Amino acid sequence: MPLIDSRTVDRRPWWWHGLGRRVRPEAYPPERADIVVVGAGLAGLAAALALRERGQDVLLLDSRDPGDGGSSRSLGMLVDDAGAPFPVLVRQFGAARAAAMAQEARQAREHLEAYIAAKGIECDYTPHGRLDVAHSAAEFDRLKADLATAGSTAAPGAEVVAGGDLRSELGSAAYHGAVRHPGGGGLDPHKLHAALFAEAIDAGVVVVSRCGVLGIEPKNKGFELDTEYGLVQAASVVVTTNGYTGAAFPGLQPRQIYVRSQAVVTEPLPQEVLHQLIPRGRMVRDVRRLPRLFRLTADGRRLLFAGTPQVLSDTPLAAARRLAEWVAETFPELAQARIAHAWDGVVGISPARTPEIGQAGGLHYALGFGWSGIAMAFWLGRKLGQQVLRDPESASAFHVTAGKRRWMHYSTPWLAYQSLRDRLAG
User: Fold this and answer.
1) Does the model's pTM come out above 0.70?
2) What are the tens digits of pLDDT across the range 127-173?
3) Is the dihedral of CA 368, 372, 375, 376 positive or negative?
4) Distance from the CA of 228 to the CA of which of 5, 177, 199, 299 falls in 20 to 30 A?
5) pLDDT less than 70: residues of the chain
């Protein structure tokens, strides 16, 4: 198993090592704002930017430093992902809406790619595509069946990979086959967030960090937010907290399952070794019910690996050690590698496993996009900004009129159930 030394492992996300943290001087929020956006991650920044484009007075609040949640703790995979396999979408929503969701997920990825290019954002984007890999023969059969069911709605160029072709893509004997998706790639999520944060400040968005929302009530045809720094009046409120949605939003908090995920990154390794493991540098997703994700860093010198190893309550370091075991199971060549960084974070997943955008109690919100990635976070944030302004462009296949309340919105029982299903599936 790769070595994790509790005395030397860095418990901060790998992405934080090369870019200073954006800790703004603490300041009191204004007493009034046209629109308050709660959550200064990628979705919140996208919403704030969309609103400022239309001249709105925007206040952006975050209980932490902006970006310290999921936006800078992910593996930085820029992919088109509607959250659930296409046949599952069809069963839950019907063929027409499932196709619309798949198409919108691709639009989300393409939109962020175009935005990065147009703005000249330096975030180490490498458009190498991704592999969805199957750890069992039965899982590979399901992947092939899913692709066949998707038909013309599948991503252009998506194709089955097996045998020698698979070995040219992935130097691991742990997998039986894959589906290759040429679109998308990997980036540095912290650098992306930093660029969008700077753009929001330049656009005139008022940001108050470390200012959590304690409660919210309708008042004077708008809302009154009780924050850690005082009361704020707002005509509209946008909530983009996702996995960090707290008790201040009782109408939104039960609409998700909250899952703590773990990530590790190795020490620098010889490039020729890692090139043999992931020759084409693709993002890789092991399509279990509790997925495992791995990729190379942009310089090709380290392996990043993420997953949800803990079923019952566990210490973060113990969870990281289990993840390191998975690294060795996948790539025995790395059994003696040292883990340099190990960190965790919380993701929010909707009951349907698909992202959700809509209104609840007059609040505009986007939730449940924790497993759909960076592109969907940015896309739904922009949609929310348009939704507040009643722009026809705000229409989305992920819009819901009444979200489910999940009886099992705490992670432990849900994780236990999904882990059992993974074990039974082989």
Assistant:
1) yes
2) 999 999 999 999 999 999 999 999 988 889 999 999 989 999 999 99
3) negative
4) 199
5) 1, 18-26, 309-314, 401-412, 414, 424-426
